[in-house]
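Class prep. Sample record?

___
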Amino acid sequence: MSDAPRLSVGIWGGIGRATLARPELQNPIDVQTAVELRHALEEFEADPDVRAVLIAGQGDHFSGATVDLEEDNDAEDAWTLGRVFLAIRQLSKPVVAAVQGRVFAGGAGLATACDVVLAREDATFGYPEVRQGTVPAMVMTMLRRSVGEKHAFDLVASGRLVTATEAERIGLVSRVLSTAAFTSEVERIVLGLASHSIAGMATTKKLFYALDGLSFRNAIDEGVRTDAEAHARQQSRGAAGS
């Protein structure tokens, strides 16, 4: 495995930016890439100047290749990528994937794990593992939540590809953006997320995903509690500033 960095990482404009940086190979998600991503996410979470995170890919494709085959410890490899998915979910800041071209296998999993997916109109999504005799095992957890059982099973059982338009229709993509305006629109949307209250955003994200494991009644109770805490925090800040 090469020790050359898989990511380009930087922080500017209040945005932590992690860009897959092997466009000549269509930005595969291998073990080293996953490790670098997790470290970048940890850095972004710890930095008070970072208010949102953007994950992108250099070149014509976000990530159009399967995981590198040079790794031989399958369980540990899977956990390495699994920790990235968990880190995205646990981050207090919104994580946006900006995707174009091929978004396959590990790359599709990475996009699915993000809070918001912005797709260029030429993006094509696929979970082709079944065609190779393997399983998109960890991705199913997020995919079912994003698109529902019927769409999710169709995608993982057929391995078929879907366009950005269909991906948006079934809930896999948040917004489809034109090719001409893609870069500027991604920047506008991510900067918009970064402009919101840090505490408000963190509370929103925490509650949003906490609802997954709660009954309807408990979810309402949790919403009431969170709402009261948020208003109390806002009033406290107002009183401190008066």
Q: What stands out?
A: Confidence is low (pLDDT under 50) at residues 67-72. The chain has two domains: 7-194, 198-241. The two ends are 58 Å apart (CA to CA). Residues 198-241 form one domain.
